[in-house]
Specification:
The protein is of the alpha/beta class and 341 residues long. Helix content is 35%, strand content 16%. Helix 4 packs parallel to helix 5 and helix 7 packs across helix 10.
């Protein structure tokens, strides 16, 4: 039976979507939920995500079920999948772990990319040719072509939970903020995604003195060793504050209170985009065209003019200089903020 005939015959399709990566990639998967629900309103969508990131989609209205994957118990998870019944699985990662889950779930139609481990998939998409000159979401949505979905309209979805919203609001109330807020996110997964922290501090002080913004410094667990020193530097600043330690959703709640976010490429940037917060992204070696939304008026970005850009290396600088990030000056970022605010 062809997939076209199968889709017409089945009224309540059961989809399994695999996206077991960190925060940003989890949010980048939400357009798939939206598009599938618009095309098949009665379908049931189950999403597999690594357990630490399940909270990012807990209240997503287009996701019917979340299966949180525990890395410490892979076999028991695979056994559970064996007894589930899915019509169509869509593996957005094609790595060994998601391929195993695809195999054990054994849906009738198994979507994956045409690059290695092809045994696990019977519907393969060739995405590699245009990967570097197309926004990653537009590119991966091509996987849905066999379902009759071509160049679909889509939306991201992310919303912090109520308790996280209250946590952020309590802190901001104590700061007696009357001005608009600009968030500066120093958090990054790797150094090649992180604009230097001292530049963020310099930018924050410049914004405090020369604009009407209240400045919030956002950070994550990996920045904890820096924060005490930064807080000492800012102790005398009236309109430049460091947020407290947060969960992912609490960080999202702070971002949601910002009128503008300045950040490197990573999870907080995608959280802001999903909440439609104007976001200026500073890129290191990563290709901005691939990872930045196409609406560059609302979501502008800055890159360096260094010859090796983009190297697309997310782990380390091959020259150990991070010149692509150091080359982007505080004045250039400040001028861009003035232009878009």
């Amino acid at each position: 039976m062809s997939i076209e005939h199968f889709i017409k015959k089945e009224k309540n399709l059961k989809f399994l979507i695999l996206r077991m990566k960190p925060v940003g990639d989890t949010i980048l998967a939400t357009p798939f939920f939206y598009v599938l629900k618009r095309k098949f309103p009665d379908c049931h969508i189950t999403v597999v995500v690594n357990s630490p990131f399940a909270e990012m989609i807990n209240n997503n209205p287009y996701c019917d079920e979340i299966l949180a994957y525990d890395k410490k118990k892979p076999f028991s998870f695979l056994v559970k999948m064996f007894f589930r019944k899915f019509d169509i699985s869509i593996d957005l990662m094609n790595n060994p772990r998601t391929s195993q889950i695809t195999l054990f779930a054994w849906a009738k139609y198994r979507f994956g990319q045409n690059k290695g481990r092809n045994f696990f998939y019977n519907k393969k998409a060739d995405l590699n040719e245009s990967l570097r000159d197309t926004f990653v979401v537009d590119n991966t949505l091509k996987m849905l072509l066999p379902l009759g979905i071509e160049k679909p309209y889509y939306e991201f979805y992310y919303k912090p939970d109520k308790l996280s919203i209250e946590f952020a609001r309590d802190f901001l109330d104590k700061c007696h903020i009357k001005d608009k807020i600009i968030g500066l996110n120093i958090s990054a997964t790797t150094d090649v995604q992180r604009w230097p922290t001292d530049k963020f501090i310099e930018l924050g002080k410049k914004l405090e003195k020369e604009t009407r913004y209240f400045v919030l410094l956002l950070w994550g667990p990996e920045d904890k060793n820096l924060i005490e020193n930064i807080e000492l530097q800012l102790s005398s600043e009236m309109k430049f504050k460091v947020i407290p330690s947060t969960t992912l959703n609490q960080l999202g709640a702070f971002i949601d209170n910002c009128n503008l976010l300045v950040t490197g490429d990573g999870g907080p940037k995608h959280m802001a985009v999903a909440m439609n917060i104007p976001t200026l992204t500073i890129y290191g070696g990563v290709n901005a065209i691939e990872w930045n939304p196409t609406d560059t008026k609302r979501f502008p970005y800055l890159t360096s003019s260094i010859d090796c850009y983009p190297c697309n290396n997310k782990k380390a600088c091959r020259f150990n200089t991070l010149e692509c990030l150091h080359q982007i000056s505080v004045d250039r970022v400040f001028e861009t903020i003035v232009e878009i605010s």
